[in-house]
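Lecture 7 notes: from sequence to structure.
We start with the chain below.
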Amino acid sequence: MMDSDSTAARVARSSEPEANEVSDVYIREQLEKRRQELSAAVSSATSTVPAAYLMNLLSDVDSALQRLDDGTYGICTECHDSVEKERLLADPLVRLCLDHLTSDEQRALERDLELASSVQRGLLPQTDLQHGDWRVHYQYKPAGMVSGDYCDLIRSANGEGGLVFLLGDVSGKGVAASLLMTHLHAMFRSLTEVGLPLDRLLEMANSVFCRSTTAGQYATLICGRAGREGEIEIGSAGHLAALVIGKDGVRQVNSTGVPLGMFATSRYTIQNVCLERGDSLLLYTDGISEAVNSTGVEYGAARLSNIASEKHGHVPRELAAACMNDVQTYSDGTKQRDDQTLMVVHRAHSVEISLDN
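Predicted structure tokens for the same chain:
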């Protein structure tokens, strides 16, 4: 039976309470910084912003700081449930949970989601990519308007070097998660151009991510580089194991470090695999393995492995479709709880097999 979870991923989830406590420290620092800026603007004779507006903002900041002191910060003033953590990180003055926003606030949030969704989809790579003997296809299925899943394909500028492929899952939901996804996209696109070894690429990305995100934000991720003769390097930051689909069955590639954003000095090890012609590498996010049926039982990595093993040699679009269709059939009648992304990196035959054969 295949293990559907990695040790580092479990560590990441078990560390969330500590991360949330650190986030309160971060929020206090941000509020105090805002208070200093507002106080300076209020006392400035050259400020063009209406004084009444600045004073109202200053009062809101003072109120938020008081709520931090008395332990009521992050509690909805209407229903007394917790306000969504991601919204507090984005706007530390928020006082209402999503269920109690006014109609105007709801419409503004919907506009933000639509814009974020448009931006996010514009950053996705082409669904089908060919690079030398490599064929890549991915399927991307958000649970809502925006997604916290991340995938990208980056090939060398001259077309003769390796193909870098990435798939990951950022912490949180909604717009905050989608912004983290766009941050990863920009960061890896920039760092890949430097030509670093894969372990250094992950270490540098982790360092930048740690220093440019708020406390408690992290991402699990697989980063790989496919060479010209079937060789693939794979590094993982706390993500689910990649699956190699060969003619003799399916095996896991367990090269796991801690998620990006947890520790600035994290180090990552690299595994090397070689794909024969017709073999594929399958990457997926936990929205697939943790999809549930009507009785609440999770889909699991073992079932995904079994489906994939039956499609050895098939083109990546058909392999991916078979896997996603099986997940959909399994979870039919239940609401999709998490984003689902699956990527197939395939070394082509001289003549490809089709499901219709």
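Points to note: The chain has two domains: 9-117, 125-347. Confidence is low (pLDDT under 50) at residues 1-22.
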